Amino acid sequence: MKITLKAGxxxxxxxxxxxxxxxxxxxxxxxxxxxMRGSDLMDPREAKTPVRRAYALAQAALLDPGARDESxxxxxxxxxxxxVEPSPSPVDVLTAANRASTxxxxxxxxxxxxxxxxxxxxxxxxxxxxxxxCEDGPIR
Length: 140
What we know:
The chain is of the alpha+beta class.
């Protein structure tokens, strides 16, 4: 697998956080590894909805092999709950569940990404109803 990183970009490989230097760089991973780009990482505190919780659990399973069994159990329960609820994209939920059953956690993330993009952030909805109550700043 070829990975190309922009200047300063982060990638997590088998739980190790790697930050690129000041220039664009490419490298190849020649064996199986758990890889996640920094731009795909979700802060676990953002997991306030079932879709975001499923994403955070798949991310935890991918990044922390020591907690993988527990993360997978919780992930499967969360995806089962999503599968029985009306969903704008039941195919994505079923694809994520299939990927989880084969321990393809990056595949789970890929399947859930469109749902996360459409998933309302409850904290933003609360702020929208009371604009003077808070100022939205940068997330990170």
